[in-house]
Amino acid sequence: MGGGCEAINWSLHQEARIDDWLNFNVKQPADPSSPFIMLSVSEIVSAESYEECRTTADWLLSNTQVRPTVGIVCGSGLGGLAEKIKDPQVFKYCDIPNFPRSTVHGHAGQLVFGTLKGKPCVCMQGRFHLYEGHTIQKITLPMRVFKLMGVETVILTNAAGGLNQDYKVGDVMILKDHINMPGFAGINPLAGPNDDRFGVRFPCMSDAYDRELRQLAHDVASELGYDNFLREGVYCVVGGPSFETIAECRMLHSLGADAVGMSTVHEVIVARHAEMRVFALSLISNRSVMDYDSQEKANHKEVLETGMMRAEQLEKLVSTMVTRLEPIDNNAF
Ligand SMILES: O=P(O)(O)O[C@@H]1C[C@H](O)[C@@H](CO)O1
Ligand SMILES: Nc1nc2[nH]cnc2c(=O)[nH]1
C-alpha cells in the first residue's frame, strides 16, 4: 500500500452507477419554488468550508476593533457571563454570515465582543445543538471562526445531568475527559474530507482538557471558597433532546460518565483539531434519575433555574480564570 493517497480507479460501470445515484439522490427539486433546496454532494462535502469560516471571521473582524484571544461559550441558562463583558459589542447570530440560529430557551443567540478583566474576548451567548436540527459542522462553525479570529483558548460551559451519585444540584464539574456517544455512530464534526488548514486528519483527544487550565480552575475556586461545590469528572454527550431513561443513565454511569449533556464535546473536538486550548465546565442542573422508584423528572425549567442560582459564582470563577490566562508561547516545544 503506497504511503500517500491511493488513486481510486473507478471502472466505467462504477462511475455510471455513481452518476445514477447522484441523479437520483441530489437532483434539483422538480418545482423550482420548492422550499427544499437539495444540496449537491460537493456542497454537502464543502459545507462550513474554510472559505465560509474565513468569510464569517473577516466579516466580524471588519465590524469590531476587538481582537479576541479568549472565546467563551455560554450553555443553557449561563448567558449571564456575557453581561460581565466590558464595552460590549453585540452581534445577533441572525446578522452574522453563515451563523446558525439559536432556538433553545435560555440561549440568547448573540455574539458579544469586549474585554473581560482587561482581556479581549468573544462570548457566545447561546450555542447550537444537534437536536435543533443543525448539522454537526454548523454547530461547530463558531469554533473555527474563533480560531481564524485569533482565539487561543476556549472556555465552554454547559448544563448537565449528574450521573455521579455524590453530585448535588448546583455543583460545578470541571471536565477532565469526555465520552462522545454520537461519535461511536460516526457522528463526528471532523468526519469528511480533512482541511489541513485547520488541523491534522487524526487529532489526539487524550489531552483535550488542558491540565494547567484545570489546575488554574481548582486554584481560583479554592481562593473564592467554592471547593464545597467544585467537582472534576467525565462528561458524556448524547444527541437529545429527550432526557435519558433510567436504563440509559445507569449504562452511562457504568461506562464512567459523571455527567450527561447534549453539547460541548463536538465543539471541543473542533477546538482541539485547531489546536486551541480547551477548558470546560458543567453546571449540574439536575440529578439524573437512576432509580425506578424515584419521582424526580429531568426538565429544562429546572436547568435554567439552577443556572440562575449558580450564575454569580460561575461568572466570578470564569472571569477570574480569564484574568490569569497566560498567552500561548508558540515557540514553546
Ligand atoms: O447548551 P447546554 O448543553 O448547556 O444545554 C443543556 C443541554 C440541553 O440543551 C438543555 C437541556 O435542558 O440544557
Ligand atoms: N442529556 C442531558 N442533558 C442535560 N442538560 C441538563 N440536564 C441534562 C440531563 O439530565 N441530560
UniProtKB/TrEMBL annotation:
Gene3D superfamilies registered for this protein in UniProt: Nucleoside phosphorylase domain
Catalytic activity: 2'-deoxyguanosine + phosphate = 2-deoxy-alpha-D-ribose 1-phosphate + guanine; guanosine + phosphate = alpha-D-ribose 1-phosphate + guanine; inosine + phosphate = alpha-D-ribose 1-phosphate + hypoxanthine; 2'-deoxyinosine + phosphate = 2-deoxy-alpha-D-ribose 1-phosphate + hypoxanthine
InterPro entries assigned to the protein according to its UniProt record, in alphabetical order: Nucleoside_phosphorylase_d, Nucleoside_phosphorylase_sf, Pur_Nuc_Pase_Ino/Guo-sp, Purine_phosphorylase, Purine_phosphorylase-2_CS
Keywords: Glycosyltransferase, Purine salvage, Transferase
Pfam families in the record: PNP_UDP_1 (PF01048)
Family, per entry: Belongs to the PNP/MTAP phosphorylase family.
PANTHER family, alphabetized: METHYLTHIOADENOSINE/PURINE NUCLEOSIDE PHOSPHORYLASE, PURINE NUCLEOSIDE PHOSPHORYLASE
Name under which the protein is recorded: Purine nucleoside phosphorylase
Provenance organism: Perca fluviatilis
Taxonomic placement: Eukaryota, Metazoa, Chordata, Craniata, Vertebrata
